[in-house]
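To fix ideas, we quote verbatim a fold written out as tokens:
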Amino acid sequence: MKRILLAFLLILLPISPAQSSTLITLTAPTNKLADGRFINNELALSISPSGDLGKALEITASSDRTWLIDPALIEEIVDLVDGYIYLDQEGEDIEVAPFDLANDWLLKLQSLTRDNRVVAITYGAPSQSFMERLAPGELSRYNSLSKLRLESLLNREVIAPGKSSVEGEPALVAKNAYTALRKSIKITNSVITSKDVEDLRLGLAKTLNPELSKGSAFLISKSYSAAIKEAE
């Protein structure tokens, strides 16, 4: 199962040392294709009581806590609520009925974070060094949208992403595909400002997560390539 990052994360936040508190991080590499299907059922398993994300919320409410949350992860959990499709090991579609456990997890997250400071992680937790080196302007765009997306999801104000400590390089296949796809969807987004196009633009950030396996990066990058070409 994908490694869920639920440990302390060093990140430069726009808060003073006097406001420091326990940090809880919720992020995970995506397993969602651009067409909305999931490449496996790991996310649903992860939010179950025995899964990493399920266990992460087995805590009592506390005012002395800061949450670092990836809006891409929360959006994908929202997608599970009304039912979803994932691919089995043979690549066949498996349809899942509405998944109440996802809604329960989201409600619990809202309850636990109600009196806490919440900071958005850059959408999809892409490699910080890669983004700063290759597309700093797009990184700024991702961060702005990450704040807005997480605020909408949690129905509250959150702090915009700071300079994260996401280390490592993306999978080579994702790096090779990113530049051309980014330029293409950026042009499309300048003409078409729909949420569907914005989703594609933001979604590319998820392909650059260093924790994403080579196989997953290939499938997900390929799906975004097809979707972006269709949107042109």
